[in-house]
Write a structure and sequence with these properties.
20% helix, 309 residues, seven-stranded mixed beta sheet, five-stranded mixed beta sheet
Length: 309
Amino acid sequence: MLIQTRTRATLREADVTPEALYLDRRRFIGASAATLAGGLGLNGAAAATEASGKDYADGEAPNSFEQITQYNNFYEFGTDKGDPARHAHLLQTRPWTIKVDGECEAGGEFDLDALIKTSELEDRIYRLRCVEAWSMVIPWRGVPLATVLKRFKPTSKAKYVAFETLVDPKQMPGQKRRALPWPYREGLRMDEAMHPLTLLATGLYGKELPKQNGAPVRLIVPWKYGFKSIKSIVRIRFVEKQPYTTWNDLQAREYGFYANVNPTVDHPRWSQARERRIGELFKRKTLMFNGYADEVASLYEGMNLRKHF
């Protein structure tokens, strides 16, 4: 089953739904429904459907802006959950250039703002599941990755897409330590990269993406564990063979290349059957493919999901 997406290209920044409304889904849907019904002559049911068209988290309440920006992994700024928020102010996000190369006909070096137009941005609410067994619900703003990749005209040899993060220890003090081999690298199979759910995010809660969350541009693959969603991207490369990826190459037994959320395959050091939603007291069951099985399970037909995790 494929999802249908709607753009909000005509909205101005002032028109974006405030954070408080995001946090209260009933209030958000009700207010939007009333506005649409009054302004467009829609009945209540149709208006509510339109208002929730960007909700890919089944009505789950998003985490607060503070939770999302104060608790995360971004080893380039340190290994503690609070380090990114403490140190990311050093990062300069403009100008920002992305190099595109490999098996494509229209590669080169591109200014981010020229590459991703404001008019293309969409607001989408996704679940995020970390391999460490905690989770959030996050309202991202971005553009489908497929929309961007098609511009580079990948050739028939392009079977995978590889990504790299910025390396600059002056701006990213965590890189002064060898916590990981820099640059951080990730990759997707081409059909995963081109899937409608895969997003290049440049914003959060209708605002510019905070530096500690991967500014100015990061990958979002909601059915995979969070470490696949590489941050502060400076290079995109089309390749024929499965690319080197940081965590998989360090500890393949613990961090698979595919890293699809699968509650039946435990991490060697902890169970993946349940997760701790940040802000909640009790753990909840983890959903297969993080709740996106209807959309993405067909990508892995014939694969042993316990072996290819």
